[in-house]
Amino acid sequence: MSFGQLGLVALALYVVFLAGIAELARRARRDASSADHFLAGRELGVFVLFLTLYATAYSGNSLLGYPAEAYRRGFSWIMATGFMMSIVVAFHALVPRLRPVALREGFVTPGDWVRHRFGGESAGRALLLAVSLLMIAALANFLFAQLKALGLMAEQVTEGLVSYEWGVVLLAATVLAYETLGGMRAVAWTDAAQALLMMAGLLALLVWLLTEMGGIAGISAAIAQLRPAAAAVPDAIERANWASTVVLMGLASVVYPQAIQRVYAARDARSLRRSMAWMTFMPLTTTLVVTWIGLAAIPRFAGLGVVEADTVMPRLLGEWAEAGPLAMGLAVLVFLGALAAIMSTADSVLLSLGSMLAGDLLGRSHGEPATARLGKRTAAVVMVAMALLALVARDITLWGLIELKMELLIQCVPAFLLALHWRGLRARPTLLGLVAGTAIAVAGVALGAKRVGGVHVGVIGLSVNAALACGLSLWGARRGSGPLGD
Amino acid sequence: MPAVRRASVRRWLLVAIGLLYALSIPWYRRGGEAPDLVFGVPDWVAVATACYVAVAVLNALAWQLTDIPEDPERDPP
């Protein structure tokens, strides 16, 4: 049996396994409410919570985009380990404050916090809409990136027996089906299986590469000889970009809707605390590993183009598969783990999208079963739209998509982190800050100036955003009930 | 450990994490310089990796010391 045929069989078996999990999750349903569908009845214990957080955070971007970026940039991509860890550090500012209110008020969506905190002010509704629109735009972008990665992986694992286009369509339909049937339970359970598969597969691949290439020293020496700039000390702009990326990823990831919803879905504080403590080590076992996999690709595949570099991981797996029957079996397992990781992120995004579209944007009550149904339908529409986009827009790198998403999402930070820590923050200044920050980020991207001196326009936008939100709130408070103080 | 002491230790851990992040970026070297190899990797990569390992340990400790009230009497802040 060839590698492609073995990949096709493994892929088919995996889809059947997912269908089984979805059916089990459907039977475990307690009621038809939004809290049960979107938050699994708030009963995720430490093990499943940790694995679902892990599988959600480490997506197709991590598995395809990060090795590709390590291939393009060289050793400075060690920054990825730092910025993935900064997410778990930044959660210190959110979790201890948000979790108690969420529990008491029965929050389901991120917008529930904005409604609760700013709902009494005249600009509260507009702020809720603005935050929801930004988050939904970021999630749609994220879904697009996952679908693109799904198509690439399916094509590679089956050696073209399943084309990129059919990969996108079939796997998107699979994700949509099991998410609709089983909700958060199906998502969390499949996440757990996917996370274990991914971790084991990546470590096996790295061990093979290290054995093949003379260990870490062998890879470093080969890079220093072939591309000295990739091993040299980063220049001032690259260092500024390093710091900016840590800030961008750390802060923006904290307001990921699907991450916020997992904070709501935890069974208790102990589960949350332990999951976070375990999560902090995951960049060392995942991001650092994929960074080294990308670095090992530099001497193996010289001269790949910018977009072509997104395929370094599948190319390495293809080479590994040629080393013998055992290697082929393991390579298929890694492919499947990667595919599973991408699907696990796509399903989490889809679930959050559905809940936000129905609850935050269309303003439906979480208690009604009709809300969960509406959420599923609207998410399906977005899924179809993103799948169509993934079929036509192929000339954009996965890392490019991540940056774009983060630069939008980070503008929501004041409405969450500042609002949780400072009672003086008002709705209208927060809204003005968000609009200004988003305008700066969008203008920067549209004009092709995504970074200024290495600093992301989204981070510059956030600085203006936070300054406006704080300054105008203080000014409004001094003027009494002025127009900006609300 | 009493709650006040726990909160104080947690704060210092977070400060140390911030310092480690600052140290992880090679501000201390001139850009473009060829690196020396330490344990088979460029020296500045070894420093960054060591910083991130330390961040992971300190952050895990900080999470163990984090109080997350399950039944709050009033809203934050």
Structural key phrases:
A: 486 residues; Sodium/glucose cotransporter; 22 helices; 1% strand; B: 77 residues; two-stranded antiparallel sheet; elongated
According to DSSP, the number of beta strands of chain B is: 2
Overall pLDDT level of chain A: 84
Which sheet architecture does the biggest sheet of chain A show?
Answer: 2 strands, antiparallel
Structural class of chain B: mainly alpha
Give the CA-CA distance, first to last residue of chain A.
70 Å
Oligomer: heterodimer
Descriptive overview:
The complex is a heterodimer of chains A (486) and B (77). Chain A has a single domain (3-240, 271-398), classed as Sodium/glucose cotransporter (Up-down Bundle), CATH 1.20.1730. Chain A is built from 22 helices and two strands. Chain A has helices spanning 3-27, 34-39, 46-57, 60-73, 79-90, 95-105, 110-118, 124-157, 164-212, 215-226, 236-254, 257-265, 269-279, 282-285, 287-300, 312-321, 325-361, 369-392, 398-409, 413-421, 427-446, 457-478, and strands at 451-452, 455-456. In chain A, helix 1 (3-27) runs parallel beside helix 17 (325-361), helix 9 packs across helix 17 (325-361) and helix 11 packs across helix 19 (398-409). The radius of gyration of chain A is 22 Å and the shape is globular. The model of chain A has no long low-confidence stretch (mean pLDDT 84). Chain B is mostly helical. Chain B has helices spanning 3-24, 43-64, and strands at residues 37-38, 41-42. A two-stranded antiparallel sheet of chain B has the order 1-2. In chain B, a hairpin with a 2-residue loop joins strand 1 (37-38) and strand 2. In chain B, helix 1 runs antiparallel to helix 2.
